[in-house]
Amino acid sequence: RNLLDMDTFSKSDPVVVLFVQGSGSGEWKEFGRTEVIDNTLNPDFVRKFVLDYYFEEKQNLRFDEPSGSHGAVLGAQDFLGQAFVALGEVIGSQRGRLERALTGVPGKRCGTILLLAEELSNCRDIVTMQLCANKLDKKDFFGKSDPFLVFYRSNEDGTFTICHKTEVVKNTLNPVWQPFTIPVRALCNGDYDRYGDGDGAAMGPEQGVSRFGPAAAGGSELGPCWVLFFLFCNPNYIKASPSFPGPPPTQLNFTVAIDFTASNGECGWPGGGIPVGTAVGLAVGRVPMGCCAAGMPSQPTSLHYASPYQLSAYALALKAVGEIIQDYDSDKLFPAYGFGAKLPPDGKISHQFPLNNNADNPSCAGIEGVLESYLQSLRTVQLYGPTNFAPVINQVAGAAAQVTDGSQYHVLLIITDGVISDMLQTKEAIVTASALPMSIIIVGVGPAEFEAMEELDGDEVRVSSRGRYAERDIVQFVPFRDYVDDSGNQVLSMARLAKDVLAEIPEQLLSYMKTHDIKPRRADP
User: Fold this and answer.
1) ∠ CA 350-356-358 to the nearest 5 degrees?
2) Chain segment 194-203, per-residue pLDDT in tens
């Protein structure tokens, strides 16, 4: 802002050159430069600098502001000023925005440089759009208009930066632009809620038109108009936008299975856990000694223990994942099961019992209903064993096999301490389920090493059973302990857990559709 005017018959033609100081040598090395903007003393540069930021290091930066320097050599006669800052200063400034005075020209006030920093998200989402417009203004004297669209992205400080421009459609008032694909990071840096004011209110229609309205090739605005756009992405995004007709979305059906085995702690198997090498014996019905009575786990060593001030790891994982995925389940009724417990009144061991104690209708109303049933089950059943996954996987697979046309997709969340007893049967169940519209999320709680869970995840080696390989990767495993925030920010850490465990679901859903040649249904005209 307010740069020196170095040109005789016009204003300066500024460019910014960024230098980075070597941490060891102290030598300044050019990192990059912006575009040259002609004839202005208040330029807004489009080109960005992407740097790696290290909290623990001092990263010194120098911004030189020459005028009209299209070549590699910066001439002293073109110098408009410079500024020295540390990257940490910019990162730590309010809203990531720092204004610094330019210096370096004796006896002159050189103006200021404004620096804005924004952490790049790891978002890999892309969006495909096709846009059209109707009844635009006629701007050409001998013909119609030649419209195109310009997109501006909102920065974190409320300013806007150009991020995309469509092709020009010649001589028409009803243009239909070609479909284009753009990274979500380019549009909003992965922040889907960015386009609002500081209080979170939505942008008004007139603002949307002004930012996304069409322009004529000659540069004049074509005025307000309705722009119809289609987002071809996760079908559930379309579900959330009823204003736009589209194909019926895939319905997600969410099922929960919770580990009630004694290896979670608090008596049960002798010593409160299953000794090494015991799993095979237990799987064929070996009877343990010293089991505890039913009731809420009262010792903090139990993974099911809930203090008056905090939910158990099981409940936290359930809430973190369930509260997001429930938005894609229209009836909000979730079948919820437990496995590995002795049930009253006769002490029968079950590997698939309804948490709400209703075998005819195991569905709970919302995630709060699942939590309530889970806590009630803890009061009535006895933690026991063994830990068998296959029965509940086969149960959900049976439901998934009923509708395979792509309109229904099932997601099974298993929360467990990872001490699995039926590994061979579970692999067989996963291989069978991989051909069905189904995904499995496994959240491991407790201190176990989880080698078996990593094997079921199949990221490195595809799961196989008796010579058959899984048709596709349908299992996502994460250890809960990786998301425990020592600072006590439970909300943030659980949000990270949910994001990571759900990250593979869209791709797994698409892989089922592609494998079975299920194409999106055409929308009604």
Assistant:
1) 75
2) 654 433 333 3
Question: How far is the C-alpha of 200 from the C-alpha of 244, rounded, in Å?
Answer: 23
Question: Could you identify the residue written with the tokens 């590995």?
Answer: 340
CA atoms of 181 and 167, how far apart (whole Å): 13
Q: How far is CA 292 from CA 288, 312, 340, 383, in A?
A: 11, 20, 14, 8
DSSP code string of 350-404 = ESSEETTS-SS--EEEHHHHHHHHHHHHHHHSEEB-----HHHHHHHHHHHTT--
CA distances from 485 to 304, 482, 497 (A): 19, 8, 11
- Burial of residue 489 (number of CB atoms within 10 Å: 0-12, 13-18, 19+): exposed
Segments of 167-322 assigned E as strands? 180-183, 214-216, 227-232, 251-259
What pLDDT is attached to residue 87? Answer: 86
pLDDT digits 0-9 by tens, 305-356:
888 878 888 998 888 888 777 766 767 899 999 999 999 999 999 999 999 9
91: part of which helix (H) or strand (E)? helix 87-92
How far is CA 343 from each of CA 86, 225, 271, 291, 437, rounded to the nearest angstrom? 63, 65, 21, 13, 32
Q: Are strands 475-479 and 438-444 parallel, antiparallel or unpaired?
A: parallel
In which region does residue 200 sit, left (phi positive, over 0), alpha (psi from -120 to 50) or beta (all else)? left
Secondary structure of residue 324 in the 3-state scheme: helix
- pLDDT (tens digit per residue) in 118-157: 877 778 888 888 999 898 888 777 788 888 888 887 776 6
Is residue 434's pLDDT more than 90? yes
Indicate the class that CATH gives domain 251-262+295-516.
Answer: alpha beta
pTM for this predicted structure: 0.53
Angle at 418 between CA 415 and CA 423, to 5 degrees: 110
Helix (H) or strand (E) holding 416: strand 408-416
User: Residue 74 has what pLDDT?
Assistant: 58
For a pLDDT cut of 90, what percent of the chain falls above it?
35
Which residue shows structure tokens 């319905």?
A: 251
Q: Which residue has the higher pLDDT, 218 or 20?
A: 20
Higher pLDDT, 311 or 512: 512
Q: Where are the alpha helices (DSSP H) in 233-284?
A: 235-239, 279-283
Tokens 């579970």 correspond to 426
- Where in the chain do CATH 3.40.50.410 domains reside? 251-262+295-516
Give which of 25, 46, 28 is closest to 82, Cα–Cα.
28
Q: Is 264 helix (H, G, I), strand (E, B) or coil?
A: helix
pLDDT 10s digits, 287-304: 333 334 445 677 788 888
The strand ranges marked E within 436-487 are 438-444, 464-465, 468-469, 475-479
At which residue do the structure tokens 């090739």 appear? 217
- CB neighbours of 23 closer than 8 A, spacing ≥ 6? 57, 58, 59
Side-by-side strand order, sheet with 160-165 = 160-165, 147-154, 214-216
Which positions ≥6 away from 131 have C-beta within 8 Å? 149, 166, 176, 177, 227, 228, 229
**Residue 66, token pair as written in the block:** 């020459």
